Automatic annotation (TrEMBL):
Domain Methanogenesis regulatory protein FilR1 middle: 124-253
Annotated signal peptide: none
Species, as recorded: Haloplanus vescus
Positions of the HVO-A0261-like N-terminal domain: 7-88
SUPFAM superfamilies found in the cross-reference section: Winged helix' DNA-binding domain
Name of protein: Predicted transcriptional regulator, contains HTH domain
């Protein structure tokens, strides 16, 4: 392990080393002059970097062409993967730092390219608004939700009354279910959704502090902070959709079907 850490430290201590290794890995054989141009570094710097990588056993040069050794190729692939995963984790740290343990199984690298929303005091309802917009015209909806919002109930109830065809399954916590049943202003919409053949609501026995949703081809993952929606990632990546579906099925299987208000 110490040797592995030493190699990672060697590469990360110099941006030029890591970048040069990546360039050669992607396009070998690479001419030294081409490497110099792509690194945007001085001739002296490139010579020093190449000599260092060669002495370390990462690459070999012949007739000014650079190729990776098997050692260099093995590390370059895994180093790039680690960089990509780390970059994605850092980009979505607001979501991942506040996410539940179930988010540990998310394919982190698949988050690259996802839309990230973070709630702010200036726009505290941005996450709810985004979820509502995703659900507005979706015909297939699967959700694990931390709470029941009146806007959400009203949206579903309105679609039911218009006779739209869609298929919704939602998992909420026992406490959220009780609160929805207690609210007089929720009752009409709540009754409409429960009585509809288009909507199935499941009650989970434990608190839920996160949001996971599948809306047609789109997946969404939300995290809360201090009891309020804080961050939301939205993506059409198939891996993330599969992950969202898997989380939903796990929570649904642990829940009880709600048939009355």
């Amino acid at each position: 392990m110490e040797d592995a850490v030493a190699e990672l430290r060697y590469l990360t201590q110099s941006d030029n080393r890591a970048e040069a290794l990546g360039i050669v890995a992607d396009d070998e054989p690479v001419d030294r002059s081409a490497l110099e141009s792509r690194l945007d570094a001085s001739h002296r710097t490139v010579v020093r970097v190449v000599n260092s990588l060669e002495e370390r056993g990462y690459l070999r040069q012949a007739d000014r062409e650079l190729r990776l050794t098997p050692f260099g190729a093995g590390i370059a692939t895994r180093f790039d993967d680690a960089l990509d995963r780390t970059a994605a984790a850092v980009e979505f740290e607001t979501l991942l730092r506040n996410g539940p343990p179930v988010f540990r199984d998310l394919p982190i690298d698949a988050l690259s390219g996802a839309e990230l929303l973070v709630a702010s005091s200036a726009d505290p309802f941005s996450i709810l608004d985004r979820v509502l917009s995703l659900r507005a015209e979706s015909t297939y909806i699967r959700e694990v939700a931390p709470a029941v919002q009146q806007e959400s109930i009203d949206q579903l109830a309105s679609r039911i009354r218009r006779g739209e065809e869609f298929d919704v399954e939602t998992v909420i916590s026992e406490r959220a279910s009780e609160r929805a049943s207690e609210r007089i202003d929720y009752r009409e919409g709540h009754e409409t959704t429960i009585e509809s053949d288009s909507v199935d609501i499941y009650v989970h026995p434990k608190p839920i502090s996160f949001f996971v949703g599948v809306m047609d081809d789109t997946a969404a993952f939300g995290a809360s902070k201090d009891g309020q929606p804080h961050a939301l990632a939205v993506s059409t990546d198939p891996e993330l959709r599969t992950a969202a579906e898997s989380i939903f099925e796990r929570y649904r299987d642990e829940s009880t079907h709600k048939t009355t208000v």
